[in-house]
Structure formats: structure tokens, C-alpha cells
Design brief:
transmembrane helix, Laminin, 2 domains, four-stranded antiparallel β-sheet, Neuraminidase, Growth_fac_rcpt_cys_sf, Wnt-protein binding, endocytosis, mainly beta
């Protein structure tokens, strides 16, 4: 009988001067209370792959999602040289090209003394940037600045006339904090820590609906994953936690509640 037959395909034979025994090969693990090995599903372990993981017998294969390319075992977005990073800084928004070492840190929007940008998100398809201002209880947006000098000059003239800012007609907001854009359905989600709710509306504030209320104390940041139909938010109230739910407010679930104190982002 050969060593392979004795131990099986999932195990290897170890011989010493006093004994011979079988041990599971790499990618397999011993079945409890049985003298056999079973495949290890590496994809169940968080962080095995950068994005997509496909388990195989005794191993696994990592791959990248659409519009991403594999670089040094990591997935990097295609066309990264054209990506822009927008940064909220008190009452202004600045922009830079993070993958261009010669990129300048340029102003994209300058608000007046009443503007306090708490959170923002970009609606790329609509070429708009949205933000919450909890000092004034408003959600506002403006068009993203154009790249050409001529268009920038035009935008500067427009800001001198009307600031280029539109305030959504959403009544009763007390302390809007986090904001997230559903770029698939064209909706905006926000948290209101003054009223302890999570709400949704269309891009201009129409058809507003409360999704989450009750058992929520100080909701802060929120993000949405429209491709999976889920949303996530942080709550830094008396019982701090991070929660998730479907984007219609159903299937609510707590993700993190132990050893967490001040989750704001």
C-alpha cells in the first residue's frame, strides 16, 4: 500500500523512526472526531482577498471586480490618474488628484460664515456635491466645478451672483449629520441626530420617507451600498454601535456593539 493511498488525497504521510501517521495537507483541516481531512474555505476568513474570492479544493483564487485591476495582490481602480479627492474643511470644499504628485490643493467651493459642512457625498452621474449643515439644519448641493479655466471663471461669476448653492426644501430637519448618495436609484440618505432618525428622499428632496426610528440615539455617519441594497450607519449615543439594514429600512441588524465608544465615521 502506498503512502498516498494510506492517507488519502487530502493528507500526507509523515514517517519517523518510531511511527507513521497522516497529517492534513495545506488547505485542508482535520474533521473533528474523524480520521479524515476536509477543505478549508479560505474565503470565509475576512481579508483573504482584496475583493472577490473563489474557494477551490485545497486553495482559493483571488480576483477583482469590474473596473478594477490586480496590482501586487491588491485591486486598484482603473483610470485612477483621473480620480479626484474632495475634502470638506469647515465652510469650504477643496479638491486634489491623489495619484498625481504634482496636484495642487485647490478650492472647489467656498461658503459664507453660515456654512458648516459636517458630511458630504458626491453624485458623480449628476455632477453634484451634497452636504449637511447641522448648524442651520439644512441639506444643500451645488454643481461640481468644471475642469477648464473658462468654465471655472464662469462658475466664479455665478457664485458672486447666487453662490451656486441650492438648499433642499426639506422641512423639520434638526441636526442632519451624515449623508450618502444612492447613485443607482438617484436618492439621498441622511441621519438626523436631533430627531434620531434615518431618512431618504429623491435628489431634490421630494418623496421624503423615514426609514429608521426607535432604538437609535445619536446617528452620525451613513454609507449605502446600492449594488447590494444595504446601508450602514454609526450611532455614538448612550449605547454606541454600528448597524446595517436594507435600503428600505427592513432587515435591521447590529454589526458592532462591544468595545466601541465614539463611532462617528
Amino acid at each position: 500500500m502506498t503512502n498516498t493511498t494510506m492517507c488519502g488525497d487530502e493528507a500526507q504521510c509523515i514517517q519517523s523512526q518510531s511511527t507513521t501517521y497522516c497529517t492534513c495537507r495545506r488547505g485542508f483541516q482535520k474533521v473533528p472526531d474523524k480520521n479524515s481531512c476536509q477543505d478549508v474555505n479560505e474565503c470565509l476568513r475576512f481579508g483573504t482577498c482584496s475583493q472577490l474570492c473563489n474557494n477551490t479544493k485545497g486553495s482559493h483564487v483571488c480576483s477583482c471586480a469590474k473596473n478594477f485591476m490586480k496590482t501586487d495582490n491588491m485591486c486598484k481602480a482603473e483610470g485612477s490618474e483621473h480620480q479626484i479627492l474632495y475634502i470638506a474643511d469647515d465652510n469650504k470644499i477643496r479638491s486634489m488628484y491623489p495619484f498625481n504628485p504634482n496636484s495642487a490643493y485647490e478650492p472647489a467651493f467656498q461658503g459664507d460664515e453660515n456654512v458648516r459642512i459636517d458630511a458630504m457625498d458626491i453624485y458623480v452621474k449628476g455632477n453634484k456635491i451634497y452636504w449637511t449643515n447641522w448648524h442651520t439644519g439644512r441639506i444643500s448641493y451645488r454643481e461640481l466645478p468644471a475642469s477648464s479655466a473658462a468654465s471655472n471663471a464662469s462658475n466664479r461669476n455665478r457664485r458672486q451672483i447666487d453662490g451656486g448653492v441650492t438648499h433642499l426644501n426639506i422641512s423639520g430637519l434638526k441636526m442632519p449629520r451624515g449623508i450618502a448618495i444612492d447613485w443607482v436609484a438617484g436618492n439621498i440618505y441622511w441621519t438626523d441626530s436631533g430627531r434620531d432618525v434615518i431618512e431618504v428622499a429623491q435628489m431634490k428632496g421630494e418623496n421624503r420617507k423615514t426609514l429608521i426610528s426607535g432604538m437609535i440615539d445619536e446617528p452620525h455617519a451613513i454609507v449605502v451600498d446600492p449594488l447590494r441594497g444595504t446601508m450602514y450607519w454609526s450611532d455614538w449615543g448612550n449605547h454606541p454601535k454600528i448597524e446595517t439594514a436594507a435600503m428600505d429600512g427592513t432587515l435591521r441588524e447590529t454589526l458592532v456593539q462591544d468595545n466601541i465608544q465614539w463611532p462617528t465615521g
